Amino acid sequence: MTEWRLIDGTLTTWYDAPSHAAGAALVERTAATDVDLRANGIRLRTRDEESAAEISKAAHDLGLTADPSVLQEVRLAFEASDPPAVTTFWRTALGYEATSDDLQDPLRRDPAVSVHPLTEPRPLRNRIHVDVVRPSDAVDAVRATTGQEPYGAWGVALADPDGNEVDVVPGDQLSPEAADWWANFAAMVFYPTTSSTQASRLASAVAKLADDVSTPLEIDLRPAGVMIDGSKDQWEDDAPKGGAAFIELARRIQDAAHELGLAPDPRPLRFVQFGIDAVDADVLSTFWRTLLGYQPDPREQVSDIYDPRRLNPVLFFQQLDKNDQRTKQRNRIHFELVVPQDQAQGRIATALSAGGRVLDRSDQHCLLSDPEGNEIDILAVH
Known about the structure:
Low-confidence stretches: none
Helix content: 25-40%
Number of strands: 24
């Protein structure tokens, strides 16, 4: 089982692949239902060692190569004066479900959130904030449930009981020609399925359509259905495969789903990203890209960095005045990076080489700060 690692109690692996279709061929051979299919590879998760062995054999037969060194999960953690109230707020804002330890996306696509007791007063605004984009009716429900009127420069900000802010942004339907799809920063659609065979057929059809027009997509299979996601901003007119070309691809995917008897369900749709207020955005971007293995967005007008496998959330940077008092306060929010045990020491060394500083350390975790004091806890899974 050298290809697999334990992440969040789940056996996990990644195989490099030259196309969506190459990854879809592995899905067809195994009927796996916890799969993240990308243009450059495929991540699979299972709790069953026999299933993992079956997947490994099929991958070898198809000539796919595993790379467990890339496995990681980026999460968010809050320190709260009233953890139950803060947990309730974020469960509502994100549309997550509560587990015994944290809040999770029911489809396990978007980053998990945990809430811990606050150890000291930190009254100022955080330098880390959250953007959540959901269909407009879901956003209306969040506002009604929290009883808050949105505020801020864009008129979409809400705050939990400790003042931690989130921009809860309403999405909209992508196009009349592709009415199943929603534009939630990323263009996306979710089709519930009734069997692994039905999900596999849809994934294979989408893989072929995406490969035919050389458009990378996120195709995620779950027991409940298939999520198809174009990634942030890639549907927009200025994207290489965006505008009318993307809408035409979305329409063809929609037609393929309808031919299989599938209908969309917008309720699970969600896009989550994290922003960091930075005195020196270039320095911080370099730190986080180095630590996470991210790439910079090539567009000049944005500061985004992203996971090249599109498995973890986008980060972006906003200018912060060096005299702002918030630079002297620890955030009430920090990141968590979950990695396999055999990767932890390498990640810590990488963080230190990029300007990080160790704040606390034990056998199972290492709390570090970036050059401006934003924190990340590297958690090693034994």
